[in-house]
């Protein structure tokens, strides 16, 4: 049981896609379950439209979660867990304001101490608490860490040890009673039976805290694997809030979902960047132990070239529904003919228009005689893949032209372009009447 747990506070970027895909693909490969869990307890920053966009972007990548949960709908479970922690003396009220905490941290820094919460609130007497509450102060609630060494065998990083004595007791519940991400995440990972958590290495410290909370709740922690983070080519970290390298923008730029997925998963690993035919093929390449420890730069150029390479290898059956939706006909023969020339999928539509819609032959005055003579040599139908070769041989023999002077005017007349798919494949798709008309500079 694996999960992807984004907060719906912005559009997913390729770094989020890396996390989502690693989880989804490991689940897929192992016959496990993959859930999408929206970390939306921060009502000030979460937005329904981002939650919708996340599900849509995952669908675009080809990921269909087995279930979707919203933490905002599970608050009662978190309240119950908080009550248990309070009863066990592991969750205590603290009354410092943000300003007071900031002041404490500043003083600690000037004394050369780490800015760790001093647990002053733990020492408050009942009467002192009552006095603070009488002033109108509301508590936030901190988890009392055990101050021990928390260890786990990380799927990417190997054996890990964190001394929780070096950490501040984490705030689990805000002053207004709302939950920060930590407790809901722990409660859900236990309740939902998550067995492996794959997430970014920015969560390594959280993991130590979460293992302590899981222990305090009597649960068995899952296994953890923290992957390296992707950055912009400049080295700057990716931000959902700033809209860096969003899946939406890559999709709008015409990038292929399988190319984005392959790049998101393979960049920053010891495996070469390579096009894949399907998510199953990509799942077969996933190996947590191949993920590097250092942050990895993500170059959008890599996706662009991978998009072209992906298209060049996509089998017709995979793209048939998309071709149909785009109004592109010609079946497998057309796809085979053009796929090697596509930079983006939409190029298939332009080639289809060039083949199947009436357009005037692009004939330069100097070539008109040559092309009309070539038209006269066109064999009768039916045409097949060998027609072009036989015809061009005859044209060559009669005109005496060769090389560019022979091929170029013909390609221009037939397609209106300088380069493109092999004419041998296009000719049968275009048909004799159209080819003959275009060679004569007419509309065909
Ligand atoms: N909402 C957290 C994040 O997006 C979830 C981390 C986790 O996977 O537990 O970073």
Automatic annotation (TrEMBL):
Its EC number is 6.1.1.17. Keywords: Aminoacyl-tRNA synthetase, ATP-binding, Cytoplasm, Ligase, Nucleotide-binding, Protein biosynthesis. It is found in: Cytoplasm. One of its GO terms (molecular function) is glutamate-tRNA ligase activity. A motif ('HIGH' region) lies at residues 6-16. InterPro entries: aa-tRNA-synth_I_cd-bd, aa-tRNA-synth_I_codon-bd_sub2, aa-tRNA-synth_I_CS, aa_tRNA-synth_I_cd-bd_sf, Glu-tRNA-ligase_bac/mito, Glu/Gln-tRNA-synth, Glu/Gln-tRNA-synth_Ib_cat-dom, GluQ/Sye. Residues 374-440 form the Aminoacyl-tRNA synthetase class I anticodon-binding domain. SUPFAM superfamilies: An anticodon-binding domain of class I aminoacyl-tRNA synthetases, Nucleotidylyl transferase. Residues 3-274 form the Glutamyl/glutaminyl-tRNA synthetase class Ib catalytic domain. It catalyses: tRNA(Glu) + L-glutamate + ATP = L-glutamyl-tRNA(Glu) + AMP + diphosphate. The keyword Nucleotide-binding applies. ATP binds at residue 240. A motif ('KMSKS' region) lies at residues 237-241. Belongs to the class-I aminoacyl-tRNA synthetase family. Glutamate--tRNA ligase type 1 subfamily. Catalyzes the attachment of glutamate to tRNA(Glu) in a two-step reaction: glutamate is first activated by ATP to form Glu-AMP and then transferred to the acceptor end of tRNA(Glu). Monomer. This is Glutamate--tRNA ligase. The lineage of its organism: Bacteria, Pseudomonadati, Pseudomonadota, Alphaproteobacteria, Hyphomicrobiales. The gene is gltX.
């Amino acid at each position: 049981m694996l999960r992807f747990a984004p907060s719906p506070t912005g559009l997913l970027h390729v770094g989020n896609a890396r996390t989502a895909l690693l989880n989804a693909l490991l689940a897929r490969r192992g016959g496990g379950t993959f859930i999408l869990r929206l970390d939306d307890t921060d009502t000030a920053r979460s937005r329904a439209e981002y939650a919708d966009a996340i599900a849509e972007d995952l669908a675009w990548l080809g990921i269909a979660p087995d279930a979707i949960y919203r933490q905002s709908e599970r608050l009662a479970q978190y309240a119950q867990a908080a009550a248990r922690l309070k009863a066990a003396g592991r969750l205590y009220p603290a009354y410092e304001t943000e300003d007071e905490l900031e002041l404490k941290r500043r003083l600690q820094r000037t004394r050369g101490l780490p800015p760790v919460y001093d647990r002053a609130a733990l020492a408050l007497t009942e009467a002192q608490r009552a006095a603070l509450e009488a002033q109108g102060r509301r508590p936030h609630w901190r988890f009392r860490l055990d101050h021990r060494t928390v260890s786990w065998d990380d799927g990417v990083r190997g054996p890990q040890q964190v001394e929780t004595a070096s950490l501040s007791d984490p705030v689990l519940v805000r002053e207004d009673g709302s939950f920060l991400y930590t407790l809901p995440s722990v409660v859900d990972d236990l309740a939902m039976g998550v067995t492996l958590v794959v997430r970014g290495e920015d969560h390594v410290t959280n993991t130590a805290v979460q293992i302590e909370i899981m222990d305090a709740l009597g649960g068995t922690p899952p296994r953890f694997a923290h992957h390296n983070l992707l950055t912009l080519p400049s080295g700057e970290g990716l931000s959902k809030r700033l809209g860096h390298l969003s899946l939406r923008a890559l999709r709008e730029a015409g990038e292929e979902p399988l190319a984005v997925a392959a790049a998101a998963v393979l960049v920053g690993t010891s495996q070469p960047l390579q096009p894949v035919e399907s998510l199953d093929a990509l799942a077969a390449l996933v190996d947590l132990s191949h993920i590097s420890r250092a942050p990895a730069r993500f170059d959008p150029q890599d996706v662009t070239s991978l998009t072209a390479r992906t298209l060049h290898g996509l089998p017709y059956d995979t793209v048939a529904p998309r071709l149909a939706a785009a109004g592109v006909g010609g079946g497998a023969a057309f796809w085979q003919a053009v796929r090697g020339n596509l930079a983006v999928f939409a190029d298939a539509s332009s080639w289809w228009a060039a083949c199947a819609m009436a357009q005037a032959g692009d004939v330069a005055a100097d070539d008109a005689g040559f092309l009309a003579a070539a038209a006269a040599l066109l064999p009768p139908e039916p045409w097949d893949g060998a027609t072009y070769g036989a015809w061009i041989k005859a044209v060559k023999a009669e005109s005496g032209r060769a090389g560019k002077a022979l091929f170029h005017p013909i390609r221009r007349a037939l397609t209106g372009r300088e380069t493109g798919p092999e004419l041998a494949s296009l000719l049968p798709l275009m048909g004799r009447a159209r080819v003959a008309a275009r060679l004569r500079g007419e509309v065909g």
